[in-house]
Amino acid sequence: MTGLTACAATSEPQPDFAEGQAPDLGGAQFELVPELSDEFDGDGLNFSKWIWLDENWSGRPPAIFDANQVTVKDGQLWLTADRIDEPFELHGRTWTHRGALVGSRLPADVGMYTEARMMVNATFMSSTFWLMAYPTETPEGIRSVELDVVECVGVDSRENPDDPWWTKEWDQHYWLSVRNQGPLPKQGLSQAQIPTDGPITGRWRTFACWWKTETEIWFYIDGERVAILHPEEGLPFNIPMRLRMVVETYDHNPPPAKGEPGSMYHPDGTKLSFEDRSTRYDYVRTWRIAE
Known about the structure:
This protein has one domain: Sandwich (Jelly Rolls). 0% of the residues lie in helices and 45% in strands. It is built from no helices and 17 strands. Strands 2, 3, 6, 7, 9, 10, 11, 12 and 16 form a 9-stranded mixed β-sheet that branches. Strands 1, 4, 5, 8, 13, 14, 15 and 17 form an 8-stranded antiparallel β-sheet that branches. A hairpin with a 7-residue loop joins β11 and β12. It is globular, with a radius of gyration of 19 Å.
C-alpha cells in the first residue's frame, strides 16, 4: 500500500493470539506496519504517525476534544475524560466535558490485522479503538465506512427499560461493529455484543481485528476470536480507513445527574483520579501479510 513500509524481522512483535487461535495464512506470515504501530515509549505523541485534533470532528456534545487531554507517559498513551467547571458555547453547541482523540495519519487496508492493549476508563465516557473513513466517492456512490474493534463505557447512565437493546449495559459488554454505509443515506450495520467476563475497568485487555477480506472481519479479545462480522451485502468493504483511539460521549449514555451538593462523589466519574479517568493504551500494532 502506498506510503506504508513493513518490518518482517523475527524480532518484531507478532499478534497476541491465544493458543490455537491464530488464523491459517497458508504458510505466510504477518509483518509489522510501523506507520500504524506505536509502543508509546517516547515523551510525547509521535506526530509523524498520529494526529490529536481532527478539523472535521470537534467531538460529540457535550464533550469536546481537547489536545490537552492527550498524554504520553510511562510507556503508554493516556486519553483522559474530564468535566468543564464553566461550560461554554462553541459551534452552536454547549460543551460540559472534555474528551480526546488520537488518529493515524495513514490508513489501514484490507488484509491488515490491528491490535491495541488498553485499559478502560471508569467514567461515563467511552473507551474505544476503531477505524473509519469519511464519506468517499466510490463507483457505488458516496459511501462511509467504520470498523469498531471495541467500544464501551465505565459507567452506564441509562435506566429506562424501554430504551433500545443496543443502548444498554455498555459497562458490562464490549461492542464490536462494521458500518458499511452507502450510497448515502443507505445504512448497513453488523454488530456484536461481547460480555466483559469480569470488571470492565482496572485491567489490561487486548482488542484486535483482522480485516480478512472485503466481506469478512474477525474480532479478537485477549487473543481469542470472539466474533466474525460480515458487512452490508453487495457493497465491498474496501475503503482504506484510519485508526482512531477516542474518549467521547454518546447520545445514548448522557452525563448522569450530579451527586449531593458538596460531595466529592460525582456519578459521571469525573471526580476520580487521573488514572481512573484515563483510557490507557500500552501499544497499538498493525500487521499485514508478507508477500
